[in-house]
Model the fold of this input.
Amino acid sequence: MNSAEIKEFAQSLGADLVGIASAKTLNAFPPDPRWPQTPANISPHIKSVIVIACHIPVAAFRVKHNIAVQYLDMLVLRRMDRIAFKIADHLERLGLPSFVTAAQETEWDLNTASYGRLSTRHLGTEAGLGTLGLDVNILTPEFGPRLYLTGILTEIELEADKPMTEQVCIGESCSRCLHSCPTDAVLHFGIDKRNCGLEAQEFGYMTATDFFMRYIGENTKTKKEMIKARDVFGFWQGLLRVVGSFGDCPRCLAVCPVGNDYHAYLAEPQKIIPEKTPEKVAKAKEFKEARKNGEAIEGLNDWNIRWVGKEGYKGIVARQLQEFRQTQKAQATKEAK
Ligand code: SF4
Ligand code: SF4
Done:
């Protein structure tokens, strides 16, 4: 199978976006060379990575609470994994050795916090599906950051897609992700993973270890009270359905104005950001000034700019919005006839 046939097959199985990244490129450009997340560290035989993305249904971001997104996240991840496995299995049966990575899992021996053997957001950018935003989510022109990605590692040499050089993220003058973040975890094209984890993994690993560290030091009476705490229910629910221990906080995804799903269904309900504070506005302003003045910014340094978009922001979101409005207008005129 060639690249075009594989993409068609992946789409027929339900993948929303498909791209191909060359293993050679991924090996040469690990996201952080100190902890290289590369195909070569998994298998020396990998030649290409087929990257698929599945979007999170936009309706979930119109709901008053976070439960809908949390539950749908799990369903989307399972569906995406099944699609990826079917692709790998199909290639394998054709005599083309291929397998699926553990997309969201953390590798204990690499960097701290959520850090897998491959970074799916970087796979996506190398496969030409989007670029990294201010909050280092991958932003795709189609769905903004409201999606999940995984990779199928294959020993076939496939024609790779070209990464985008235009920055999809509007950048510092937007900063809506920063304004919305309940734990102020958004940095300048970077993320404070620990702060993000407080909301994004409410009952995740850190909460569990913190809880049990406190628990072992308590007397029997307090232990009996602690065991009935909401935390323990959260851990149980997380084990059962993963809900609560992963992908818990949808705020920076919900407010990001990239993607036609945003223009169609989120622009109105997400227009006002209740979490916005004067302090966050000042922080965004500092970021804007720093970039304008050419100050050293780690997220935009010579290494990292590759995934943000070397050309800078050229108005892709405004162009897309204009096209979207024209299509809507044409549709309305057609229906009126
Ligand atoms: S997921 Fe939530 S906590 Fe994490 S960066 Fe986004 S808004 Fe902030
Ligand atoms: S909300 Fe704005 S600044 Fe943040 S990632 Fe999206 S486009 Fe970029």
